[in-house]
Write a structure and sequence with these properties.
The complex is a heterodimer of chains A (154) and B (192).
Chain A: H1 3-20, E1 22-26, H2 37-42, H3 44-47, E2 51-61, E3 68-72, E4 79-83, E5 99-111, H4 113-126, E6 140-153
Parallel strand pairs in A: 4-6
Antiparallel strand pairs in A: 1-6, 2-3, 2-5, 3-4, 5-6
Chain B: H1 3-6, H2 9-39, E1 48-56, H3 66-77, E2 85-90, E3 93-97, E4 102-106, E5 111-119, H4 121-130, H5 137-157, H6 169-191
Antiparallel strand pairs in B: 1-5, 2-3, 3-4, 4-5
Helix pairs in contact in B: 2-4, 2-5
Classes of the chains: A alpha+beta (154), B alpha+beta (192).
């Protein structure tokens, strides 16, 4: 078997082996202990500014820039956004539905009613959605992980 | 006879321009094609082709467990492939993630939206290289390429002698080429 015939065989073998692994993105993982998404969402003030390791199925991925993932929580209807700086980590669309182990710092932002009324119409226009100011009641908490690294299983 | 006198600077310049030009062809095509693609990201996705299909499968009982709802949905759709995972973002919606794409089910109506973002393999590879996704050694290759473009621009100024060279028409065209970005920036940043 000459080299030209051997090359695609070797390449395919490497790709299969690579595909079987978890793909790592960003900085190396540093934490061992995992935190449940439900715990973070239930008490974001406690975790604000702390680095955590979180596991979840990827329920959404940014297909424009690969700059965020949404992770399924351990309780019903719960999700947590894992946001990375544009271009620092780029997630491919193929990670949708895969299990991810991520590390990042918990970020908590609180938007007042006034801020929401200024911000939401712009977002609604960009996303082609209807905006109903009557639905804004009280301050809104936005909780997310500012991501540093992730392992995504194939 | 020294090497310098046998090969005068203009011939060295032309030789450099020629050889760097040959070396830069591949990378120039990658950066130029990808540049066109990512320049219009507001109008299209240069990395993925979006596929959307709509199905109707009839209402589903939203009280059922997630896994059972996913299995029932796939059975009604006639999909035999195993799902990667499922998720209910709210009481009325179920999302089923497949190897390629996802089904989003509106449980009360049974309307299903299938959505997949399929890679444009060649263009995606070019875009990833253009935006330095590989980092590491590619950073150095991209830096070398940028330096080679500077070398091509500077050596290109002195290829021709005479009225079509840098002392004639070339000077006007070079000035025009420099004025375009400068003028646009002044207008965009200060005058508009």
């Amino acid at each position: 078997m000459n080299l030209f015939r051997l090359f695609p065989v070797v390449l395919c073998a490497v790709m299969v082996l690579k595909a079987a692994d978890a793909q790592h993105y960003g900085q190396p993982m540093t934490l061992k202990e995992e935190t449940k998404i439900s715990e973070i969402l239930a008490n974001p003030e406690k975790f604000k500014g702390k680095k955590v390791r979180v596991r979840g199925v990827v329920t959404d991925v940014c297909v424009e820039r690969g700059c965020y993932l949404n992770l399924k929580g351990d309780k019903k209807f719960q999700e947590l956004m894992f946001k990375v700086d544009d271009g620092v980590i780029v997630f491919p669309a193929s990670v949708l539905g895969a299990e991810a182990i991520t590390e990042g710092v918990v970020s908590l932002q609180v938007f007042s009613e006034k801020e929401q009324k200024e911000m939401c119409p712009i977002e609604a226009k960009a996303l082609n959605r209807k905006f109903d100011p009557a639905k804004i009641k009280g301050p809104m908490k936005v909780i997310r992980l500012d991501g540093t690294g992730a392992d995504v299983k194939s | 006879m020294s090497l310098g006198s046998r090969l005068p600077w203009r011939r060295w310049n032309a030789a450099l321009h020629r050889d760097i030009g040959f070396l830069a062809v591949g990378l120039t095509l990658v950066y130029a094609i990808s540049g066109l693609a990512v320049n219009h990201m507001a109008h299209w996705n240069p990395n993925y082709r979006r596929v959307v299909k709509i199905h109707e499968i009839g209402a589903l009982n939203k009280e059922l467990p997630e896994a059972q709802l996913a299995a029932e949905t796939l059975a009604r759709l006639g999909v035999e492939a195993k799902p990667r995972a499922a998720f209910q973002p709210d009481q009325d919606t179920l999302e089923i993630y497949m190897k390629e794409g996802k089904y989003a089910v509106d449980l009360p109506t049974g309307k299903v939206l299938y959505e997949a973002n399929l890679p444009r393999p060649v263009l995606m590879a070019m875009n990833r290289l253009h935006l330095n996704a590989p980092k590491k050694a590619w950073t150095w290759i991209a830096d070398l390429y940028a330096l080679s473009l500077i070398a091509l621009a500077l050596t290109g100024l002195f290829i021709l002698k005479g009225p079509k060279g840098i002392k004639g028409r070339g000077a006007w065209l070079t000035a025009l080429g420099c004025a375009i970005p400068t003028g646009y920036w002044v207008w965009w940043a200060y005058l508009r």
